[in-house]
Amino acid sequence: MFEEQNAQWGLVHALVLDGKGGARSIARTELDDLQLQAHESLWLHWDRSHPQTQTWLRKSSGLSEFSCDLLLEENTRPRLLQLSDSELLLFLRGVNLNPGAEPEDMVSVRIFGSAQRVISLRLRPLRATEELLVQLEAGKGPKTASELILYMAQYLTNKVQDLVSCLSEVVDEEEEKLDADERYTPEHGEVLQIRRRAAALKRFLAPQRDIFGQLTRIKLPWFVEDDGDYWNELNNSLTRYLEELELTRERVGLVLEAEDRRLSVRMNRTMYRFGIITGIFLPMSFLTGLLGINVGGIPFSESPYGFIVACLLMVSVALGQWWLFRRLRWV
């Protein structure tokens, strides 16, 4: 019920974390008078495109104009910015798993974090937040604001793993087909699409890896003690995915090179055979042309066995050429 009411204000989710892994929903109207207990944290997840979101952010959120400008920027990239009072801005990207969308288009989430409050903004639906809600409903979700940000980054990174594995499996299949069948021809459009996806994902995710590296070194007072270890694991995971994407690009290049090499060998073999056939029939064509001249004195023209003799002569020439080509190892 609260979600339907909040949607009119651009508020996708409004949750108070109970500090034990669960959360309770609140209405938009409760925000102004909300008093959090020491163990509680507030998570507000907004639709960035909604006009009411921008109004609330600038007039009622308590954030500085600088922070609001960054959170509402039209285009941005993964970044981390520490603010005064131990607050931070964190912009992350994830693969776009919405129906009809290309995964490499990416989706972004912009996060403001403080000791007891997390404000996140999205333009398109995020699978990561949906999974996070399931965990909170089951009482197994984040307990603090820092863990909430960590969970969100982890779910975004997990979606990258699924896509990277899928791309790698497609390349595996193409390599196996090339090895199993010499006449197999990969679909160049599909193979190049894999290469473009890998390049696009690497371009957008490489800065995010650097951000995870920075978060391993940041020691804000409201961070849980072992948060740095988890950020380091995310950094290592994303580094591995980026390496896999680079390897996928290289393997696609090898698949295309192997196909080009096969086509070149096949074409050379075909031209070689045509050359052999032409070499064999060229002298015979010369003989038939010479014997076909309408002048007197053609050998065996008066003999009833002249035609047979001419045929045997041409067969002899062909066999002689074949023997010569074999001797020279041309065939």
Automatic annotation (TrEMBL):
Segments spanning the bilayer are 271-293, 305-325
**Membrane topology reported for the UniProt record:** Multi-pass membrane protein
Record has Methyltransferase as a keyword = no
Query: Where does the record place it?
Result: Cell membrane
Coiled-coil positions are none
Q: What cellular component GO annotations does this protein have?
A: plasma membrane
Primary site of residence: membrane
According to the UniProt entry, its GO molecular function terms are: cobalt ion binding; cobalt ion transmembrane transporter activity; magnesium ion binding; magnesium ion transmembrane transporter activity
Q: Which Gene3D superfamilies match?
A: CorA soluble domain-like (3.30.460.20), Magnesium transport protein CorA, transmembrane region (1.20.58.340)
* UniProt keyword terms in alphabetical order: Cell inner membrane, Cell membrane, Ion transport, Membrane, Transmembrane, Transmembrane helix, Transport, Zinc
- Family membership noted in the UniProt record: Belongs to the CorA metal ion transporter (MIT) (TC 1.A.35) family.
> Which PANTHER family does the record associate with it?
CORA FAMILY METAL ION TRANSPORTER (EUROFUNG), ZINC TRANSPORT PROTEIN ZNTB
Q: What is the name of this protein?
A: Zinc transport protein ZntB
Q: Which organism is it from?
A: Pseudomonas fluorescens
Organism placement in taxonomy: Bacteria, Pseudomonadati, Pseudomonadota, Gammaproteobacteria, Pseudomonadales
Q: Which gene holds the coding sequence for this protein? A: zntB_1
